[in-house]
Amino acid sequence: MSPFWVLVFVFFNNGYFLDGLSTQNSKRPDVVKIGSIINFDSVIGKVAKVAMEAAIDDVNSDPVVLGGTKLKLTMLDANYSGFLGIIDALQIMETDTVAIIGPQSSVTAHLISHIANKLQVPLLSFSATDPTLSSLQYPFFVRTTQDDWYQMAAIADIVEYYNWREVIAIYTDDDYGRSGISALANQLATKRCRISYKAPMNPQASRSDIMDVMVKVALAESRILIVHTYPTGGIDVVDVAHHLGMMGSGYVWIATNWLSTVLDTDSPLPSGTVENIQGLITLRMYTPDSEMKRNFLSRWKNLTNNLTGNGHFGLNTYGLYAYDTVWILANAVNAFFNHGGNISFSNDSRLSELDGGNLHLDAMSIFDGGQLLLDSILKVKLTGLSGHVSFTSDKSLIRPAYEVINVIGTGIRRIGYWSNYSGLSVVPPEKLYEKPPYRSSSNQQLHSVIWPGQTTETPRGWVFPNNGKQLRIGVPNRVSYREFIAEVPGTDAFTGYCIEVFTAALNLLPYAVPYKLMPFGDRVYDAAIGDIAIITNRTRMADFTQPYIKSGLVVVATVRKSNTHAWAFLRPFTWTMWTVTGICLLGVGAVVWILEHRINDQFRGSPRRQILTTLWFSFSTMFYSHRENTVSPLGRMVLIIWLFVVLIIKSNYTASLTSILTVQQLSSPIKGIESLIASNDPIGYQQGSFARNYLSDELGIHESRLVPLNSQEEYAKALEDGPKKGGVAAVVDERAYIELFLSSHCEFSIVGQEFTNNGWGFAFPRDSPLAIDMSTAILKLSETGELQRIHDKWLMRSACSLQGANLEVNRIQLKSFSGLFIICGLACLFAFLVYFALLVCQFTKDYSESSDSSGRSSQSARIRTFLSFVGKSEQALNGITGENESTNSSKKICTAVSSNRSVSFGVGTNK
Questions:
Q1: Within 10 A of 11 (CB to CB), how many other CB atoms are there?
Q2: Is the Cβ–Cβ distance between 595 and 642 less than 8 Å?
């Protein structure tokens, strides 16, 4: 075989890509010792044991992989005990072992990692998923499987995808469970979700212990349950939950990959277990399909047929990662030797002084090449059963991904994928790696799910806890404005507009809400209702429902009736508007005269007559009564545009004047919040209202000007007295209060515009799902008209009527018509320029010969000739032009021009 094909065989042996060859070679031993610590009879351990033995056989059967060196694997059973795991690790490290595959448990990994750090022996764990093992505290720990940090990120994305906000975490109370749930809490926080209740369980919990935990879970309000336990413990949890009736409609169960591991390994499961897990969602570490993986799956049955004790079992993803871990270590050992590494150990003087008895602590020594082997492990790149294998800078496997699985009937159904690259998707991750990452919420996708209770409708995710507890709802006990909310004397009941809106919304909810109304005081409440304005500072502390009434701040002041007078007809327009309109009248008349007087006899005659005609024409266009006809195209264009402007102005003037003369007008020295800020007068506000802080902090009004008022009577008295008698110039309060106040105090009125855009809503704790449902109910009340009916019932009790009264109808401003005036002005300018250009052209053409025959004329004479030309009518010009065509006419014209006796600007005939 040629050297080239030998090299190719080395690089691609069994589908694994070797790290590369080095020119440095060291003496390779016949055997390299490695160890493994797993739980032999566990769901993960029994599969991993077979997978690692198969991998060792595959490596040792191919002399090219390690150049003739063989791996000797020593596997010890930790038997679910952290203590035994430590003993196993010490026994393995007494035998000059260069690496340990395992431990299987995250708890044991924490303990053994300290020993590995000291002796510089790399740990390669295919199943310890605790995220904290990736810290700098454990430099010799290498995770060859997916980190639970990513699994919890996938669960958080699922929770956000279905618009849930709170979950309950059920977990094993050890390093594995606590760290996983801590990662889940962090991931949920990025989605504005949270764990509302944590239910830890003893790792050796009995059924009665689990029952105690699950009873407490059943009393909580969240129905999104995340189970993060070991496989055996997880099956016990769902069994107890089924017994308590917690696997029915309305519940959501999301199991971490312990459930998919059980389904892959121990199927078919007992019928009782299958019934318990119907509708659950679980995750499974994603391993892409490949020919290598399919070959190993077909080989798996033969590998497990001859086993005794455990019998036949399926291959789970941990088995794939265990197989690949052996190959990672084999490739790293090969690279270790290629880079000059030698297997040698050094004694630690502190260990040599110990007499360890049967443990032989003094026999343990430090692996001299541990750091080089660790570096070789982290540089490995190969394609294995689990897909492409390589490590990131933080020692994590690249491209973490999971399958999202729904348990249905006796099988499972994949509803999508999750990857750290693109989030939730129905497309396999390897196809998405070819595209740029895109993680928008609209791009997240999953197939439909059959939830517990055999329903396809996505559960709401929470219910009121079935523990007899009532919601404590805080209510203000008002002494004024009792129409909004007030306590019924002699009882603990409340009534009013806010109460009726709240109860009407509750009646629309699809579930019962036990509650008790309690006056505000020194206690903790589950909600607050009443006349509560939704403002920025409050939204930072609580969640509010959809506003059920709009109530921004307004200014109310004393008003007086405006009497009509002899000059009332001038009030529709401001003086500026009148002035500009008059100027435009005269301007349009002048432009039309310029355009018409040479060709239209109606615009000719003596100067006095022309001036009168122009003035008459200008003003008569306001009433469409002008008698003069326009004959020039430019004149007609200007007139049409001007008549359109007149039409708009007249329509608005008529409407405004009608309102002034027929509707009662009210006036006030306060025009709105701007004039109130500019003055130095005192301002009233409702005691306890947010209006004080708004006026002071937002508008900069000095606190000495703010006067607190407590009732409608105080409002009226303070406004009647006014600033000169110790009262206020105006009162600033929310519109809802002011409208109720004005219904019985017609001598006051709202002035100016509403200057904030607030509303009233019901307040709930942050992220409360009840706030969302109540908002939906309020919208339904609004759509059906029930909200308006409740408003009219409580708040439309007018003792007087303000209908037919306006507060100082706004006068028409120039800016409202500036566009029309600009268009008209541009049209006049355009017509004038075109007319002037035509005159110049005609003058140049008609008088060029006359100028040539008379010699070079002076500039002033030429200007006088042009002015004479402009003043003549078209008929006169035609006569002169005829004479110019005769041979003797030029002399006559030159004589007339030079004497200037017949030049008359604006005169209709030649004399």
A1: 14
A2: no
Tell me the per-residue pLDDT of 514-531, one tens digit each, with 9 for 90 and over.
Answer: 899 999 888 889 999 999
Q: Are 494 and 475 in contact (CB under 8 A)?
A: yes
Higher pLDDT, 795 or 897: 795
**Type and span of the H or E element at 614:** helix 607-620
Q: Is-contact 831 592, C-beta < 8 A?
A: no
CA nearest neighbour of 177 among 152, 154, 150, 200: 200
Q: How far is CA 170 from CA 180, 203, 406, in A?
A: 11, 12, 19
- Which residues lie closer than 8 Å to 405 by C-beta, 6 or more apart? 260, 281, 282, 283, 284, 412, 413, 414, 415
Q: Which residue in this structure is represented by tokens 């937002």?
A: 698
Supply the DSSP string of 396-465, one letter for each residue: PBSS-EEEEEEEETTEEEEEEEEETTTEEESS-HHHHTTS-----GGG-------BTTTB-SPP-SB---
Worst-scoring range by mean pLDDT, 302-316, 333-347, 392-406, 745-759? 302-316
User: Which residues make beta-bridge pairs with 519?
Assistant: 475
Neighbour count for residue 346 (Cβ, 10 Å)? 11
Dihedral sign, CA of 131, 133, 137, 141?
Answer: negative
Which residues are CB-contacts of 721 (< 8 A; sequence separation ≥ 6)?
A: 727, 728
Rounded CA gap, 673 and 753, in Å?
8
684-703 pLDDT tens trace = 999 988 999 999 999 999 99
Per-residue pLDDT at 523: 84
Strands (E), 531-645: 543-544, 549-550, 553-558, 560-562
DSSP class per residue in 513-546? --EEEEES-SS--SEE-SS-B--HHHHTTSEE--
CB 151 within 8 A of CB 402: yes
Helix axes 769-784, 497-507, angle to 10 degrees: 100
Mean pLDDT of the chain: 83
Distance of alpha carbon 479 from alpha carbon 489, whole angstroms: 12
Neighbouring residues of 727: CB distance < 8 A, sequence distance ≥ 6: 682, 717, 718, 719, 720, 721
d(CA 214, CA 212): 6
Q: Which residue type, as a one-letter code, is found at position 343?
A: I
Does residue 13 register a pLDDT over 50? Answer: no
Q: Is 184 helix (H, G, I), strand (E, B) or coil?
A: helix
- Retrieve residue 121's tokens: 């022996």
Q: How far is CA 876 from the centre of its chain?
A: 79
Mean pLDDT, residues 188-212 taken together: 94
Distance set, CA 823 to CA 579, 647, 817, 828, 836 (Å): 18, 14, 10, 9, 20
589 burial via Cβ count (<10 Å: 0-12, 13-18, 19+): buried
Segments of 805-855 assigned E as strands: 805-807
- DSSP bridge pairs for 228: 171
Q: What is the C-alpha separation between 717 and 709, in angstroms, rounded? A: 10
Helix (H/G/I), strand (E/B), else coil: 708: strand
User: In terms of C-beta density within 10 A (0-12 exposed, 13-18 middle, 19 or more buried), how is residue 227 classed?
Assistant: buried
Q: Which of 90-104, 368-382, 754-768, 888-902 has the highest mean pLDDT?
A: 368-382
CB atoms near residue 761 (< 10 Å): 25
Tell me which of 899 and 726 has the higher pLDDT: 726
Which tokens sit at 726? 């110790």
pTM, two decimal places: 0.67
Q: What pLDDT digit, counting tens, does each position of 372-406 carry?
A: 999 999 999 999 999 999 999 889 999 999 999 99
Contact at 8 Å (CB) between 674 and 753?
Answer: no
End-to-end CA distance of the chain: 127
SS3 state of residue 577: helix
